[in-house]
Amino acid sequence: MKTYKEAFALLLEKQQAHQYQQRQKKAALYQKIPELSAIDDQMNRLGIALTRATIARDQKQAATLRQQMAKLDDHKKALCRGHEELLAPSYFCPLCQDQGMIGTETCQCLNQCLSELSFSSFDLKSRAQKETFEAFNLKFYSDVPIFEGVPSPRENAATNKRLMKTYCRNFDSLTGQLLFTGPPGVGKTFMSNCIVNELSKQGYGIVYVTAAHLVSSIQDQLFKEGKSSDAIFKPLLLCDLLIIDDLGAEYASEYSQKLLYEVIDTRLNAEKKMIISTNLTVIKIQELYDERLSSRICGNFKTVAFQGEDIRILKAKKSR
């Protein structure tokens, strides 16, 4: 069972990543506006002088120095208009100011870390680390349409790539769920990995598992670890994004469908984002799953279709 100590360690990683990004942005801003560095140097000198004046109880000199510092600060803010957040202390989680707790209550940032760790035995995020939008190569998709009058697989892949980059840029403001469909090897999982990479950089909490591992993990936590249903489903509700990969490859049973329905229905009711990836068509989903589950998927998820040949086979042929 994952502990709070591990959750705090994960939270610290997220905080450090956030601070690194802030430092990078601030460095880029200072490079763009060199005058900022000169202002900082002058502010430091005035600060030292103010300390000395305060110790010497020279109130007139201290007041003059404070006025000078205030003018410099106003000038600095004017130069940084539109980037004010880079001048103030920046927290990964403004709610708890990176403490992980609000009073005696666990903050949602720490709860999200706990939710990620609850399914970390099957988590696919580590596999996603090398797969980015920059590495999503359109050359593996044919520029010849499969059917006359429809976009070619390459055009389709380019559109999907553009839409998913927009999805990541506007993650907070977007609503709705996504269903990636298409035959094996056409880039559905690769695209999910790109999304995971991009959103992880922004500090979002993501649970990323296959449908088979999601079902087996819930069963293990219920029957082997003796967890309550609330304790299991709460982490799946807390994360910012739940990605279920390879729907349809899990062992199909009435019980597995019930578990999948509870996970999907709970997040839909809470208006929390999900991405489901599957080799099944929408029609096959309706045939394979009972009406309750299939209607939740087909009726609430926007289909993002992938086309083309199996890229893994194409790469294998190329390497021979």
Question: Could you walk me through the main structural features you see in this protein, from its secondary elements to its overall organization?
Answer:
With 320 residues, this protein is α/β, with parallel strands linked by helices. The chain has 2 domains: 4-86; 119-319, P-loop containing nucleotide triphosphate hydrolases (Rossmann fold, 3-Layer(aba) Sandwich). The protein is built from 12 helices and 7 strands. It has helices at 4-32, 35-55, 59-79, 108-118, 153-169, 188-201, 211-223, 229-238, 254-269, 282-288, 291-300, 311-319; strands at 101-102, 105-106, 177-181, 206-210, 241-247, 273-278, 301-305. The strands form 2 sheets. Strands 4-5-6-3-7 form a 5-stranded parallel β-sheet, with helices on both faces. The chain has a two-stranded antiparallel ribbon with strand order 1-2. Helix 4 (108-118) crosses helix 8. The radius of gyration is 25 Å and the shape is globular.
Beta-strand residue percentage: 5-15%
Q: Can you name the CATH architecture of the largest domain?
A: 3-Layer(aba) Sandwich
Largest sheet: 5 strands, parallel
Low-confidence stretches: none
User: What would you call the shape?
Assistant: globular
Percent helix, as a range, is 55-70%
Biggest sheet strand order reads: 4-5-6-3-7
Number of domains: 2
Question: What is the straight-line distance between the termini?
Answer: 45 Å
CATH class (first level) name of the largest domain: Alpha Beta
Total helix count?
12
Query: CATH homologous superfamily of the largest domain?
Result: P-loop containing nucleotide triphosphate hydrolases
Radius of gyration: 25 Å
Beta strand count: 7
Instruction: Return the structural class.
Output: alpha/beta
What order do the SSEs take from the amino end to the carboxyl end, as H and E?
HHHEEHHEHEHHEHEHHEH
Mean pLDDT: 85
**CATH topology category name of the largest domain:** Rossmann fold
